[in-house]
Design brief:
By secondary structure, the protein is mostly beta strands. Helix content is 10%, strand content 37%. The chain is built from one helix and six strands; from the N terminus they run E-E-E-H-E-E-E. A hairpin with a 5-residue loop joins strand 5 (63-69) and strand 6. The longest helix is centred in the middle third of the chain and has 9 residues, at 33-41.
Length: 90
């Protein structure tokens, strides 16, 4: 898999570390322990497009959002951590 880093250009996935689902938001203290338990242990396992966190550890060390298909591993878009990426309709 080749990931097009916005800072370094296209690189092999071996230079990156997968950091998880980028659409999950951490609950606040007011949400309670059950919400935090769900945040930690109850994750979706989607089949299709997903926005994910990746870190370019062997390059610029930046955190990136990657729109990747979980079945085909096709990468449709890459953005910096502050940019928005939307999951396309199936």
């Amino acid at each position: 898999m080749r990931i097009p880093c916005p800072h370094c250009g296209p690189r092999d996935e071996a230079e990156f570390s997968y950091r998880g689902d980028a659409t999950v938001t951490r609950p606040g203290p007011e949400d309670g322990i059950e919400a935090f338990h769900g945040y930690l242990y109850e994750r979706r396992n989607p089949r299709g497009w997903q926005v994910e966190w990746w870190q370019h550890g062997a390059g610029c060390r930046a955190f990136l959002k990657v729109l990747r298909h979980t079945v085909t591993h096709e990468i449709r878009a890459v953005a910096t951590a502050t940019e928005a990426l939307e999951v396309p309709e199936a």
